[in-house]
Amino acid sequence: MDIKMNERKFERITIDREQMGGVPCIRWLRIPVATVVEMVAEGMNEAEILEAYPDLQIEDIREALRYAAETIDYP
What 3-state DSSP class applies to 8? Predict the structure, then answer.
């Protein structure tokens, strides 16, 4: 499932009520977007995040940040 918000398509973000209670995750991996954003907020760089979650790709991190920014953006 692709998520569209404000005409932007998020291909790496999945939301499924049957998985993680509908929490936005990265590519069905059961890694919540919020976890990735929190890691960045705590000062981790992309290499450290990828080391902690080897199934992630750099594009996943960047799209998680774009998704988070767009979900809090005002109309």
Answer: strand
Q: Write the pLDDT tens digit of every residue in 2-51.
A: 555 444 589 999 999 999 999 999 999 999 999 999 999 999 999 999 99
Among 16, 11, 23, smallest CA distance to 66 is for 11
Q: Any idea of the CA torsion for 35, 4, 10, 24, to the nearest 10 degrees?
A: 20
Tokens for 12, please give them. 């790496």
Residue 60: is it exposed, middle or buried by C-beta count within 10 angstroms (0-12/13-18/19+)? buried
